[in-house]
Amino acid sequence: MSSLNYNQVSLHKASYEPDIPVNNATPCFRDPFELTPPQIEEIRGDSMEESKKAAEFSLKDFKVIDNIGSGSFGIVYIVEKDGKQYAMKELMKDQIIRDSQSLYFVMEHVPNGQLHQLMEQIQNNGQKGLPPTLAKFYSAELVCALEYIHSFSIAHRDLKPQNILIDEQFHLKIIDFGDSKEITEQDMIENQRISTSKISSGSFSKILLNKDQRDHHNHREGTFVGTPLYVAPEMLEFNQSGYFSDLWALGCIIYQLLTGVTPFQGKNHDEVFSNILERKIKFPPYMEREAVDLIDKLLAFNPEARIGYNNFIQLKQHPYFREIDFKKIKSREIPVPNLDIFGVTLQSSLITDDSDDSARRKFKSFFNKIENEDCCSGVVDYKRGVFEGEVKVRRKLFFYKRRYMIIQDNGIILLARKSGRMRCDMFIDGNTEITRLKAKRFQIKNQRFQEVIESPDTDEWMRKLIQIREQLANKPIRQSTFSKPR
């Protein structure tokens, strides 16, 4: 996937804390088993004397039984001492920061939340899925990401929108490799055999209820992994999972990107599982034919029949991706489309000047509307305007609404819609905080209001706001004419 840059897969178990990528390194997964507080106390002891003894432990005191997982920061082993087994994590010094008392992990920040949150917001707005172009773009990024991960013999096994983050440039980044598994030749042989441990539908709930206990005590390969809405039928029937399980999850996610809901629904887990095993899936009439065909082939009941099972060439050549250049997707040469749903303005600046094609001239009729707005009578004075332009104002999560913003030399800030409605209750004073949040995003905050603004002209907006704040630091603003916020 383009956002992964193919050396930047975040392999860890954390929703918002992807690991720092290790360039030119083979990715591996982190096992969730670490020393828990009770285990630490068993080693260290409760008394000060025992704690001192614990400090004298060395690697020679422990017998390494097995390597149970590794990640960007270290390796986890099962070790034994005095007949007791423990989990020991070896940390790589060059990947951590430490002082006399603590260790610090510095990780990449992925600022735009989960794909799951985006889908929820879209659904709450009454929309049926993402815009088709964006859905196809994100589907292509996920295809590239899975191809990359599988090339290292790793199956994710819990692919879902909650484990997909949206980075600063709005590309996707897969996280949470806690249930991932390195696929060996023996695994491939095992997956070819029909298991005798078929699970009846009546025991589905028990699978989930006992999952944590079984995962803690037993080897992960033989236990239930995945999330009910995205789990593949072979996991329900035979407790088997692998590359093919990721392909099933991909089909579920593409369906969700296009419709806003998952393909298999139910009142409870048992009903969802039954619908998966019976493959009860309905495609809405508005879904394009190529998308239906792709999802249908990814959700093939037989794992070997899923498109992409042998390699990803056939998957990438599917007609649904006809317009997609996967080489450019990988290299991030193609910008993410439909950024307006994130509140990103791609248009050129509309900052006013004295030229004939200034923003004020272009929006002359718009100005006439808002200038006559009764609620802002006595507040709007374009002769006092010092800076103006089109911006985005944050409203919930990371969604932004388009507004026209004007700063007057008396500190009044106007936010107007093209419909003519205006908010004119904001003003800056000497205590107003003006803070840069990102390259194209800043915040204005004081006791009366707080707004997060996004604009390609963030530098100019901040410079002008700070200039006005300094000029007005000792000049209180008359507030009697301000309207209520809209």
From TrEMBL:
Residues binding ATP: K89
Keyword match Phosphoprotein: yes
InterPro entries on file: Kinase-like_dom_sf, Prot_kinase_dom, Protein_kinase_ATP_BS, Ser/Thr_kinase_AS, Ser_Thr_kinase_AGC
Gene Ontology terms describing biological process: cytoskeleton organization
The keyword tRNA-binding is annotated on this UniProt entry: no
GO molecular function: ATP binding; protein serine/threonine kinase activity
Reaction it catalyzes: L-seryl-[protein] + ATP = O-phospho-L-seryl-[protein] + ADP + H(+); L-threonyl-[protein] + ATP = O-phospho-L-threonyl-[protein] + ADP + H(+)
EC number: 2.7.11.1
One Pfam family per UniProt: Pkinase
Domain Protein kinase residue range list: 62-321
Keywords: ATP-binding, Kinase, Nucleotide-binding, Phosphoprotein, Serine/threonine-protein kinase, Transferase
Top-level division of the source organism's lineage: Eukaryota
Gene3D superfamilies noted in UniProt: Phosphorylase Kinase, domain 1 (3.30.200.20), Transferase(Phosphotransferase) domain 1 (1.10.510.10)
Transmembrane regions: none
PROSITE patterns, alphabetized: PROTEIN_KINASE_ATP (PS00107), PROTEIN_KINASE_DOM (PS50011), PROTEIN_KINASE_ST (PS00108)
UniProt xrefs under PANTHER family: 3-PHOSPHOINOSITIDE-DEPENDENT PROTEIN KINASE 1-RELATED, SERINE/THREONINE-PROTEIN KINASE
Protein family (similarity comment): Belongs to the protein kinase superfamily.
Protein name (database record): non-specific serine/threonine protein kinase
Lineage: Eukaryota, Sar, Alveolata, Ciliophora, Intramacronucleata
